[in-house]
Amino acid sequence: MDLGITDRIALVTGGDSGIGLATARLLLAEGVRVVLTDQVPDRLAAATAELGAGEDRLLPVVADLTVPDDVTGLLDRARAAFGDPEILVHSAGVTGAQGPFHEIDDAGWARTLEVDLLAAVRVVRAVLGGMRAAGRGRIVLLASEDGVQPYVDELPYCASKAAVLSLAKGLSKAYGAEGVLVNAVSPAFIATPMTDAMMDARAEQRGTDRAEAIASFLEEERPGMVSGRRGEPEEVAAVIGFLVSERASFVTGSNYRVDAGSVATI
């Protein structure tokens, strides 16, 4: 399928691994010029090397999206190299503070909201002017099944992702008439470094290995996932690729679940 996005300019955050990296790979294969950002230099360099695209196609930029000056600098670098981004895929995020609600302090809540919500706000605000001026744009914000189906041991993350869903819907209404289409994608239990860390911690607690931790987690915590396995980043990237393409020209304000049926409601 021709996605109609050859020579478009995309900004992909959280791009050093997982869904962000898989999305960058798909976009490069479609002829898109990609600005790839994350905050750990060595990991971003490794991702850039893995993607194997030339400087005329791929620009890695180290940035901490919780720092406003870093976001400004990121957009300055993107514009100088390629021009204003026409596509934004915001994949950066953290699991954040976990545990019983009564044990999570303000600092834990603030850090989680800062990374998982306010970083999205900053990056969207930074790219929006160029999209509005051009009269077109595609924005995909990564949310989570947790945004509509909260889990009691990670409420800061759940609340942040619910806010991301509301943000995406509100932005779609505010700017859709100007040609800027905004959607969310909500994965569940994808094979990424984030869930690897979660499963390694579970394995350590239970005195087992990662494979057994994954199997028990699926059985006990995610029984609605009818696939019986973790998803792959490429399976999420495929949906993102559709949403940023010309094939999705009548899609905005939507939340696409890539969750193997995990969310119980319709």
Describe this structure in words.
It is a single chain. By secondary structure, this protein is an alpha/beta fold. It folds into 2 domains: 9-188 and 233-249, NAD(P)-binding Rossmann-like Domain (Rossmann fold, 3-Layer(aba) Sandwich); 189-230, no CATH class. It contains 8 helices and 7 strands. A 7-stranded parallel beta sheet has the order 3-2-1-4-5-6-7, with helices on both faces. β4, α4 and β5 form a beta-alpha-beta unit. The longest helix is centred in the middle third of the chain and has 29 residues, at 106-134.
Can you give me a brief rundown of this structure?
46% of the residues lie in helices and 14% in strands. By secondary structure, it is α/β, with parallel strands linked by helices.
